[in-house]
Amino acid sequence: AYLNPQYTNSFTLNHSFRNATFTSLSYSRTNDAQIDMIRQNDTTKIGYQVRENIDYSENFNLNIGLNLPVTKWYRISANINAYTNRFYSKRSSDNINNDSYTMNVWSGHYFTLPKNYVLEITSWYQAPQAYGVFNLSGQYNIGMGVQKQILKQRGQIKLFVRDIFNSSKETVKMWSNGNLILLNRNKWDSRQFGFNFSYRFGS
């Protein structure tokens, strides 16, 4: 079998308010959407992954971004993304109708300390969602860093740790197509320590 090309129609509305709040509303529909499928040979019981077309996928999305100075020493930046995914097909023996109402949220909290130090605390959460024939569990992580301006404010050094609690993991369930149900649990070493140095040239 061969893949048909997929075609997407979409629109987006954007709005900003005083460079502090940013909002967008979007919709997209992809016809002949290409997704990953898990198939099984019922005689040999061997499963395999292939790329196939389905009738369509569609997405509604509301995104809100914030960048707010709360006090002289505390600033918050955040992004809230609420959306729905739908994957639909009546082709061959498949009857796919997998959808979800979900969201992800990212926030950064910045505290200005004496001597040009800035403490940064970030958090991220992804709610459970549908993706193709798969249903993905939620995820979250928390990070922290400290940075300092140097070299007459032209340079910056930063120490950071991502995913402090090493909490990133994912459970994947496959929507059943009659002869196969897939349950997969993934865990990776997501805790990372790092050091950055940057320098700004010119005026």
In summary, what is this structure?
This protein has 203 residues and is mainly β. Helix content is 0%, strand content 69%.
Average pLDDT for all residues? 90
Share of helix among residues?
under 10%
Order of helices and strands: EEEEEEEEEEEEEEE
> Number of helical segments?
0
Low-confidence stretches are: none
Oligomer: single chain
Distance from first to last alpha carbon = 58 Å
Beta strand count: 15
What general form does the structure show? elongated
Sheet-strand content, in percent, reads over 45%
Based on CA atoms alone, the radius of gyration comes out at 22 Å
Largest sheet data: 9 strands, antiparallel
Major β-sheet strand ordering: 1-2-5-6-7-8-11-12-15
Structural class: mainly beta
Describe this structure in words.
Helices cover 0% and strands 69% of the residues. It is an all-beta fold and 203 residues long. A 9-stranded antiparallel sheet has the order 1-2-5-6-7-8-11-12-15, with no helix packed on it. A 4-stranded antiparallel sheet has the order 9-10-13-14, with no helix packed on it. Strands 3-4 form a two-stranded antiparallel sheet.
